[in-house]
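=== Given protein ===
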Amino acid sequence: MADQRSLPIPNGLEGERLDAALSRLFGLSRTRAAELIASGDVLVDGSTAAKSDRVQGGEWLDVTLPPPPAAPMPVAEPIPGMAILHEDDDIIVVNKPVGVAAHPTTGWTGPTVIGGLLGSGHQVATSGAAERQGIVHRLDANTTGAMVVAKSEHAYSHLKRAFKERTVDKLYHALVQGHLDPLRGTVDAPIDRHPFGDGRFAVVAGGKESVTHYDTVEAFRAASLLSIKLETGRTHQIRVHMSALRHPCVGDMLYGADPTLAARLGVTRQWLHAVSLSFEHPSTGEWVGFTAEYPADLAHSLKVVSGDS
């Protein structure tokens, strides 16, 4: 069913192109916003407008948003190389391989953690949307490392609350270009979708609070290995914050990494790994922690960059 939205143009968007204003207001890509305008699904003060028209604060916007496409259901099939770090009646912790999404999403046709667990005969909680049952947090498809999935309904509720209240300790390692100054610090910069609407995220005024703490573990000639703790868990948070510091993760072409350095180190995706995950166990109340070893590609590139230094 289509979603009808009516609202005034905020004064903060005064002078923006109509397609850009729609993109910011509704989280659409600029292309999708332009399509809605062209199809007559966008009215400004009751009249159709062109995508390049400049909006004025206080103008009335009527938008007909089509229903979102249904998310695909997980395909239950085992995933070779997805190691189980821990399993009990409440939780299962995996070392997620590269190229595996947490759960199905529109446009993703590759393997998923939830599908891999179901395909290997593991039970997961039935709470949450059907396509992401048991999922309490996510890692990007090309970010590897420790990830917990809820098996019991009690664990699902407990862990969802723990992640929301930021009582989970998440430690990442990232190999970034160059050397940070200072060697240890905090990035406190809001993140939202990139204004270009191209799938990237960016530091944006008025975005969601995002806090990243980093510490240099080892500095090499061309890059630095960082230990990173997150207070918040925004999409692409580490990648966006490191790029904003002009030290993108090695291999992260989406956020401005040097392809020459990536090729020399044999890195074909962002060098980012969720090293460990610690939280209060949903049933015992005990503080538990799990560590995930580097996958072969990251370990190899680290050896190469170390040998170059």
